[in-house]
Amino acid sequence: DVSECETGAHNCSQMCRNTAGGFTCHCYTGFQLDEDNTCIDINECLDNNGGCERSCTNTPGSHQCSCGDGYRLRPDNATCVDYDKCEYLNTCTQRCINQVGYYTCACDAGFHLHTDGKTCLPDVPCTEENTCSLAPAGLCGQVGGQDRCSCTSGYTLQEKDQATCIEVDGVTLNQCDDLAACVNTLGNYRCHCRGGYSITEDGRTCEDVDECAVDNGSCEQECHNTIGSYWCSCRRGYEIGPDGYSCIDKNECVLPEDNTCSRRAECINTVGGYTCRCLPGYEGDGLVCADVDECAIGNGGCAGTCENTMGSLRCHCRQGMKLGANGRDCIGQCFII
């Protein structure tokens, strides 16, 4: 039996399994076989939203669930849970109220919320002579006949005097995980994940980016995601190109160890595979080649006797005659007495 899967004499796009007298094509998980033996991606999001509670994104051979702002994906990678945004994303100047999927700011007595939704402004401003240090971002309100100091968004009251506003140092408040760098911004900070990772909804945790999910990672054939990176590979019969993305035909006939042809066969390279053909004087499937007994048919064309040899034959003439120029005929010899 010739293994079409080994010789490349098949039209499977992903996996080939040899059978007696033929072969069958199969697909990787997340793909399905169509009529011409091509594996096409299954869109899992079309079936019950891929099992995702909120958003489902189809990827080649798989899918990903996501939750959107204000939620975090549970360990089951399907359902979503609200988290305390006031702990991680709070930009309120006084009070932060966590809501399902978002948060809101509120003000203490004697203050009201500015249109920016974060800053608390005094209902009754203080007199010019007050105990608050107003530069550069201080606010002062009269509450119960006493000065009450506050700050604009991005600043906080200094603990020791509760009167001076200082910029919120994001680096000091850094809650970024180990895979992220903390970048200080005016009155806050943000986490910037290293290459191969993206920030999650909580704004501080990094998760692996599946580069293969977008345009197959620019890989021509197979894309393999790894933690923080990915790599490309090629199917049997191809090898990765110099750019690390493209696949070029591999000439399996160059090195004997790259093909299964008999040593008595010729290896013929094809695009994505190769075929084996027995040399003249031998017969078989190219993987196994047996000597042909040329003498068995028509005496091998010999006028005299025929001697079979490996891959050929040799003709002999009876005594007194010699072999002709064509290696087959026998001609008489003349003797001078």
UniProtKB/TrEMBL annotation:
InterPro entries, per database record: cEGF, EGF, EGF-like_Ca-bd_dom, EGF-type_Asp/Asn_hydroxyl_site, EGF_Ca-bd_CS, Growth_fac_rcpt_cys_sf, NELL2-like_EGF, NOTCH1_EGF-like
Taxonomic superkingdom: Eukaryota
Localisation per UniProt entry: Membrane; Secreted
GO cellular component: extracellular region; membrane
Membrane topology: Single-pass type I membrane protein
Primary localization class, coarse: membrane
Gene Ontology terms, MF aspect: calcium ion binding
Domain EGF-like: 167-207, 249-290
Annotated PANTHER family: EGF-LIKE DOMAIN-CONTAINING PROTEIN, VON WILLEBRAND FACTOR C AND EGF DOMAIN-CONTAINING PROTEIN
Official protein name in the record: EGF-like domain-containing protein
Originating organism: Branchiostoma floridae
